[in-house]
Design brief:
This protein is of the alpha+beta class. Helix content is about 30%, strand content about 15%. The longest helix has 17 residues. Bound molecules: CIS-heme D hydroxychlorin gamma-spirolactone. CIS-heme D hydroxychlorin gamma-spirolactone (HDD) binds next to β2, β3, β4 and α10.
Length: about 700
């Protein structure tokens, strides 16, 4: 962040936070607990300007929430290129200069829910980045999925009305599992590719820090001579892409509706700064028509196997906002905020967005001066003849607010790339209201996505369709949606039809072949790290204190967020007199809030835990959700005999089966073999081959 920006933010921050209580006019007041009244039991007086001002301001605290993406969380950070290789393709300085760290604000969001809705709903996630570049603000307003539901922005109001709560009763909140959404999907087959993504694990991110981001549209890079190259933007998370299970999501929505927001905040507060790599797919202008889909169609990906994603630089988020409303709520993104070296294409979805975002900010932020809000201000200097309007913060001096004028101010800039110049694309055509014929294949890439999924990802997709369509009340809507799946893959359609107990139409499926793109499977993104994974250590009086201390230390050393949960918070009296403190009471948490669980030794402790329904449920649920379970010594007795039907629990030494790591003794073993095994399982995120059918959900 530039010094100037920091200075301005500091000044804004200081405002209203120091000194004695005053009114908005700076008049000090000494009493704000009782209204001014005629006698202690008498009526309140109109002349109580302090009470009136205080209440009036409160009455006006809310602004309209975003019409979509209302629920979100954001943070500051920086972007820095690795080197200057992109100079060949773009004049945008922030992408070319490896010495330059450009300040950013990133806001993540869900799409359908309102501002107070839960984080872990099945939905697309927004991934919007504002780069405060020296050439002006650049906004990359993307999602965690590389395609979109519709091809032309004129359908956006229809799509959003369909997915939002139904208008008569405003039910359901933040969910696509209802009639109007599936009605729209069935009748608008261009949605199908994106619907496959929405039914996949991508819609259930474990963390904003573990999501990919995509610019979605094909954009253009423009070099210093005005030559263009098509580009697709990608964000790849350093921690890999990981998801929650649907059952977890639903439970977390009750246990901790702020799960993803809290995760981002805590990671940054603890210094574990989230990181992504920016990558680009570059396509020469002359290859515009080299694909079997249209590059301008936002329901299509350019498979990475066809055009590799080339690394450009890294994004690091290292500072939480000071004030949610001032920063995260008031940040105003706009796809048309671009800088020299980047330009649009004729993607009809992008073209509509270039109108919509400015328009929406005008109503949401109450007028045309929202770019003056601290979080929206460019670090580049701003000079123009735009004047006045609601919320004008600047005191423009002089007489000239028009151009040309005698003083010649503000001066017209020099040449590209100092000034923005539109890419000189040649266009011609008749005015028509018509979708290009090259946009008509709606199922080829939906099939590509399905073919690219691992078996477990396919299982989750089938289960998601069954859940969502199971909530649809009108049979024809459900049947049409399932029938659409036939065009993607007969196996998929059959499994969903069986799950719903409906008859599949007897018609041939379309043939797409078995083409796949391995890069689409998130199981191929797993990174070799346990950084910031959350592990619960269940403890009680009588615990093996030394052993538990070692587990705790080793996990933390590996970067894990390890917490001791006990029946009560506070000191635990360990069997060996070691000093241990519970971070939280087990009944205030739940296994769904962790990535794994360890039960250390200590017969007394394990007996207490075994008698505690919360603790037993905790381990069983973690097991059910395919999480690493570590059981040491007496910890192996946490569950009633035979409940964990995993071979090896009774064996000597350290043993792992289906991600349940057990050791028959404490001490030495805890330090090495047990921990190594446990950490290896944790790196894999989940144990997908674990048999769990015998454990109730
Ligand atoms: Fe949009 C917000 C992403 C299509 C109209 N959109 C919004 C945000 C993201 C996206 C991440 C939240 C920004 C923030 O955190 O403040 N939108 C997308 C993507 C799209 C897309 C990736 C397709 C590729 N959007 C889209 C279309 C339209 C809009 C076609 C309208 C024609 N989007 C809006 C909006 C929002 C918005 C109404 C709501 C609040 C805001 O802009 O600032 O203008």
């Amino acid at each position: 962040m530039s010094e100037d920006k920091i200075r301005r933010l500091d000044a804004d921050r200081r405002h209203g936070e120091q000194g004695a209580l005053t009114t908005q006019q700076g008049v000090q007041v000494d009493h704000t607990d009782d209204s001014l009244s005629a006698g202690a039991r008498g009526p309140t007086l109109l002349e109580d300007f302090h009470a009136r001002e205080k209440i009036t301001h409160f009455d006006h605290e809310r602004i309209p929430e975003r019409v979509v993406h209302a629920r979100g969380a954001g943070a500051y950070g920086f972007f820095q290129p690795y080197d200057s290789w992109l100079s060949e393709y773009t004049a945008a300085e922030f992408l070319r200069d490896p010495e330059l760290a450009t300040p950013v604000f990133v806001r993540f969001s869900t799409v359908a829910g309102s501002r107070g809705s839960a984080d872990t709903v099945r939905d697309v996630r927004g991934f919007a980045t504002k780069f405060y570049t020296r050439q002006g603000n650049y906004d990359l307003v993307g999602n965690n999925m590389p395609v979109f539901f519709i091809q032309d922005g004129i359908k956006f109001p229809d799509f959003v009305h369909a997915v939002k709560p139904e208008p008569d009763n405003e039910i359901p909140q933040a969910q696509s599992a209802h009639d109007t959404f599936w009605d729209f999907v069935g009748l608008q087959p261009e949605t199908l590719h994106m619907v496959m993504w929405l039914m996949s694990d991508r819609a259930l991110p474990r963390s904003y820090r573990m999501m990919q981001g995509f610019g979605v549209h094909t954009f253009r890079l423009v070099d210093g001579h005005g030559n263009g190259t098509f580009v697709k933007f990608h964000w790849k998370p350093r921690l890999g892409v990981h998801s929650l299970l649907w059952d977890e999501c639903q439970k977390i929505a009750g246990k901790d509706p702020d799960f993803n927001r809290r995760d981002l905040w805590d990671a940054i507060e603890s210094g574990a700064y989230p990181e992504w790599e920016l990558g680009v797919q570059l396509i020469a202008e002359e290859d515009e028509h080299a694909f079997d889909f249209d590059l301008l169609d936002p329901t299509k990906v350019v498979p990475e196997e066809q055009v590799p994603v080339e690394p450009v630089g890294r994004l690091v988020l290292n500072r939480n906002p000071d004030n949610f409303f001032a920063e995260t709520e008031q940040i105003a993104f706009h796809t048309a905020n671009i800088v020299p070296g980047i330009d649009f294409t004729n993607d009809p979805l992008l073209q509509a967005r270039n109108f919509s975002y400015l328009d929406t900010q005008l109503i949401r932020l109450g007028g045309p001066n929202f770019a003056q809000l601290p979080v929206n201000r460019p670090v580049a200097e701003v000079h123009n003849n735009q004047r006045d309007g609601y919320g004008q913060n600047l005191v423009h001096t002089g007489k000239h607010a028009y151009f040309p004028n005698a003083s010649g101010c503000p001066a017209i800039g020099g040449a590209f790339p100092e000034v923005f110049a539109h890419y000189q694309e040649k266009v011609s055509g008749k005015k028509v209201r018509q979708r290009s014929a090259s946009f008509t294949d709606h199922v080829g890439q939906a099939a590509l996505f399905w073919n690219s999924m691992s078996e477990i990802e396919q299982q989750h997709i089938v289960a998601a369709f069954c859940f969502e369509l199971g909530k649809v009340t009108m049979p024809p809507i459900r049947e049409r949606a399932v029938d659409r799946l036939l065009d993607i893959d007969r196996g998929l359609a059959t499994r969903v039809a069986e799950g719903l107990g409906i008859q599949l139409a007897d018609r041939p499926r379309r043939e797409h072949g078995e083409v796949s793109s391995p890069a689409l499977s998130q199981l191929n993104t797993t990174m070799d790290t346990v950084d910031t994974r959350r592990v619960a250590i269940l403890a009680a009086d009588g615990i093996d204190g030394l052993g538990t201390g070692k587990v705790l230390e080793a996990l933390r050393e590996a970067g894990v967020v390890a917490e001791i949960l006990a029946p009560q918070e506070g000191l635990i009296s360990a069997a060996d007199g070691a000093n241990l403190r519970a971070d939280r009471a087990v009944n205030t948490m739940a296994s769904v809030l962790y990535d794994g669980v360890v039960v250390p030794g200590g017969a007394g402790a394990v007996e207490t835990l075994r008698a505690d329904g919360y603790a037993v449920h905790f381990v069983l649920e973690a097991y059910k959700h395919a999480k690493p379970v570590g059981l040491c010594g007496a910890g192996r007795d946490i569950l009633p005999d035979g409940v964990l039907d995993v071979a090896g629990l009774g064996r000597n030494g350290v043993f792992e089966e289906h991600g349940v790591v057990s050791s028959d003794a404490t001490g030495e073993l805890l330090e090495d073999a047990f921990l190594q095994r446990f950490l290896t399982v944790l790196k894999g995120h989940r144990v997908w081959d674990r048999p769990t059918a015998h454990i109730p959900a």
